[in-house]
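Reviewer 2 asked us to include a model.

Predict the structure of this chain.
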Amino acid sequence: MELAKIENLLEKYFEAETSIQEEATLQEFFAQDEVPEHLKQYKEMFNFFSNSSLETSNRSIQLTKESKRTISIKWLSIAAMLVFFIGIYSVYQQNEAEKEEARLAYMETQKALDLISQSLNKGTGAIAHLDNFNKGTDAMAQLRTFESTQKRIFNQ
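Predicted model (structure tokens):
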């Protein structure tokens, strides 16, 4: 086999671009007893790969079914999460309902205060007429002062 071809295959191998047939060619080359000196370092690696692929295990693996306790713990955890989320949702809904009640109470209070304001404004108009009445009584008080002064002057 050509040495240049093997070197090219090695470059492709280390860049992970080789096919299965090319890797088999490399393993076949490094399985030989005679390998060029500058490629001996790769011989051990390919021999290791060849030997490790032949290894098998005699150990049996027992697959166990899940116990009823494990299954019940899973269902209990799912049920607990469900209860938790329902609880959070109900608290949120209750909070939203309280906000809505507070908003309605605020609007009713606004309406009541507007009604009171309108009534007070009507009363202020009536009070404005009282101001004219006060001017009249002040004028009458001045007339009484004038009258009392006149009586003093003429009665004496």
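The chain has a mean pLDDT of 81. The two ends are 162 Å apart (CA to CA). We have added this to the supplementary material.
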